[in-house]
Write a structure and sequence with these properties.
414 residues, mainly beta, 4-stranded antiparallel beta sheet
């Protein structure tokens, strides 16, 4: 039975969100603690920050996604379908804590187990949410599974994706609102062959938002009543944002609930988008546009409203190939970096820092390099940064360092 126009269900949804928000408090406590420290420390210009990486684990097999747990562990998804556990006190566990390889299609370089995140009540339930390409034909799949119990996996939502192996998206994350967000690529190959980016009738090229704590009819989830397209004829009601090419990494800022999205470009521009909750339904432009430049005029609509990226960089002269979307730093070790979004590029490894200006707009800077082939940037329960490296199979802890600005005349103060 549809519940979208029934007020009692709407009230129940609101109550559930309140309960979920309370269950998210363990994840937000680190951000709150850091906020208290930050009130006494002024953020420095991005040009005065640099990043330093320290290898803490190796021997991973194509690590692709990472997430922090309330007990201090980090869970690392390997592309073939295994999940490994790392703790700073005990290191990388020898055996996987979850094995989904029997379900995973790895027939293309970009297919596999792609995303992982704990349920807000993970400490009580041990429940994880995962995104992967499933056998036999690469279907994009969102599922939940209890840690250590792969036989009890439940598929929640799927999108066919058989023609091409690339552009699978794959990030999963819970928002401050208690709902689950999932990113999907445009269907693969190049040039948006299915014209999916601007088509609200498919989940390809979108970020979706669903309520995984209720069921509606035959679906093992519900569509939140305030999703932007629930009353749009022909549109998939699960859609939250559209006009994306391959948003394989996005994150939720735990302080304001906004999304930071790294969307991989065609061959000219890599882009980062910053979308606040009030911007639900935003059109990020693909494939009318690639970043801010027009890409395919035939996909541009008269009077269309497109949301510009807050940061973009060109491939030419940067050795870049694919943006690796990151996270906003909300840790306490370096309060001067509070509120700084950190991203990188799979090929160049350059670290990009982006931060909103109080007066409006954004500042950006390059602040160093990550180790080879960064595939995921995430935080532990304390809000401190980690980064994965693909084919080397490394896990690195990341910290900020303050660098002294160069005064006029070129001399450096020490």
């Amino acid at each position: 039975m549809s519940r979208r126009h029934r007020r009692p269900a709407t009230m129940l949804a609101g109550l559930l969100v309140l309960v979920l928000s309370a269950s998210l408090l363990p994840w937000l406590s680190a951000a709150g603690t850091a906020a208290a420290g930050r009130s006494h420390t002024r953020a420095v210009p991005l040009s005065e920050l640099t990043v330093v990486s320290e290898q803490v684990a190796f021997g991973l097999q194509r690590p692709i996604a990472i997430t922090g747990l309330p007990d201090g562990r980090m869970l690392i998804a390997e592309k073939a379908g295994t999940v490994r556990s790392y703790h700073p006190d005990t290191g990388l566990a020898a055996e996987p804590v979850l094995d989904l390889t029997a379900r995973i299609d790895t027939s293309d370089n970009e297919r596999g187990l792609l995303g992982i995140t704990p349920a807000p009540n993970f400490a009580r339930t041990g429940m994880l949410y995962v995104a992967y390409t499933s056998l036999p034909a690469g279907t994009l799949t969102l599922a939940r599974v209890r840690l250590g119990a792969p036989e009890r996996l439940q598929v929640l939502l799927t999108q066919e994706h058989s023609e091409y192996g690339n552009h699978n998206g794959g990030q999963v994350a819970f928002g401050r609102d208690g709902y689950l967000y999932w990113s999907l690529g445009d269907g693969g190959h190049a040039n948006d062959p299915f014209k999916a980016g601007q088509n609200l009738g498919t989940l390809l090229g979108k970020i979706v938002r669903i309520d995984v704590n209720r069921t509606c009819g035959a679906k093992p989830y519900c569509v939140p009543f305030d999703n932007p397209f629930v009353r749009t004829a022909g549109a998939r009601p699960e859609i939250w944002l559209y006009g994306l090419r391959n948003p394989w990494r996005f994150s939720v800022d735990p302080v304001d609930g906004s999304l930071w999205i790294g969307d991989v470009g065609q061959g000219l521009v890599e882009e980062v988008n910053h979308i606040r909750p009030s911007q639900r339904g935003a059109n990020l432009g693909w494939s009318c546009r690639e970043g801010t430049p027009v890409f395919d005029p035939q996909q541009c609509r008269a009077g269309g409203r497109y949301t510009d990226p807050v940061f973009e960089y060109q491939h030419f002269g940067t050795d870049g190939c694919a943006v690796t979307g990151g996270v906003v730093y909300r840790g306490s070790r370096t309060p001067e970096a509070w509120g700084t979004y950190v991203a990188s590029d799979y090929c160049s490894t350059v670290v990009y820092a982006v931060r909103p200006r109080p007066e409006g707009g954004y500042e950006s800077a390059t602040i160093g390099n990550f180790p080879t082939q960064p595939t995921a940037i995430a935080t532990d329960v304390h809000g401190e940064l980690y980064v994965l490296s693909d084919l080397p199979g490394w896990l690195n802890r990341v910290r900020f360092e303050r660098v002294q600005p160069t005064p006029p005349g070129g001399a450096t103060n020490r």
